[in-house]
Amino acid sequence: MSAFDPLDSFLLAASRFCWTPLSIFIQIQGCLICLTLALGWACAAYVRGREIRQMKDSMKCGNSFAFLSHDINDLEHSNQVNLPRVTVIMPLKGFGEHNLHNWRSQITSLYGGPLEFLFVVESTEDPAYCAVCMLISDFKDNIEAKVIVAGLSTTCSQKIHNQLVGVERMHKDSKYVLFLDDDVRLHPGTIGALTAEMEKNPEIFIQTGYPLDLPSGSLGSYCIYEYHMPCSMGFATGGKTFFLWGGCMMMHADDFRDDRYCVFSGLRDGGYSDDMTLAALAGANKRLITSPPVAVFPHPLASDLSFARYWNYLRKQTFVLESYISTVNWLMNRALFSVHCYLSWGFVAPYFMAMIHIAAALRLHFNKMHSVEDTSSISGGLLLVGCLAMCTVVELISMWNLTKIEVQLCNMLSPEAPPLSLGSYNWSLVFIAILVDNFLYPLSAIRSHFSQSINWSGVLYHLKDGKISMIERSNDIGPSYTDLGGKHLYGKKGAPPKPSLLGSLARSLAHWRQPKKFDV
To answer: Which member of 66, 87, 195, 292 lies 3.0 to 4.6 Å from 58 by CB, making a disulfide possible if both were Cys?
Structure first.
């Protein structure tokens, strides 16, 4: 028994430390963070659920097209012919397992007004080039779409460069421009819903949405899901928000033509992150950002998403806080950096303390020699462990409920698609991912702060004074696949994909004569 004495002494000392006023505060704070997240997700679930109830009420009144509009009169031909022209710009990079389904969901929109699609690639060497050309050729008689080769960026990120080239090439009569990432799966009525809100309120500067991650089963994919979930409550407001997601942004086309609020030049001159830059411009000019309740999009993650690719993704997400356009923007990013890091480790620390309390209690149970002080600290510690366990259960139930409602909403907004299900979610992995992601976030943020450089799909960006100052390119300095979608990044110039990929395209194209939205 004496061999365990050093361990007993360490556990008892650690347990007494975890019963000090500071440690008790940290553990109670962890419980409050859990309950705050649970409340935020409950409020988000209410907003999404209200939209579901409105759609059901509309269907009960005989509107079979409630997934397009609550008022069936809006779908009359006399109203549809007056809808404004919209240009959809999709910057592409690489080609992966979900891209065809995503692109197909975007171009088969049921928007009734004039609509053009601009797929923008860096070069014909991009594997996406041949794939999207095949897609457009299959739909050439039904849609207005084209592929644009943007060339290499020199003053901003490649994604922003592709977006701005698309803006320069959009139709002169387009009233609105919609930027979409190539991993966004639209619903048939998404473009119509976004346009309707812009028409109702011309004061809207940007409309946005947010993804619903569909984990593939790996811990990395669950860490991505967990990372996005706290942010999702900021987009489930049903109206005004301060958050912006670059995967879906609808704006006034004239804002770019006239460079209002420096939207064009602000992105072009050293811009790294499109959403962070535009959100900063919106805040500086007191412009309105909104997120309608229907703007939630299924986001399937790559089936082979490894933990290393999750880490690369997290690095890119924390790196955006290093970019800024003004002193006020820099201060806000520093505040967000500090608060997020504090809350992340403030969330994780109580679980480490709980393990110490439990280990000490087990040792106390098997070792009858102990003092009254040890018994008091361990008993109090177990009480805190019980409180943390209950708060964690409440938090997970709230997260599960919001995910369930968003899955139901997505199924209703895309009635022609195979239904999504909660059955594939592993909630044990969700809990582990919560701890892992919150532990790693501060480490990633600190590394980003001191490195001032990031590798994004084989392109190394260096920042100076919050803007891109240097760009290095080499196939040897980056991965061959993107982080979330697992897309192939490199191909041969002007060459079709490999035969196996071509066969997959052919099989998919065979079903496009009567297209469905997407396959899960």
So the answer is: 66
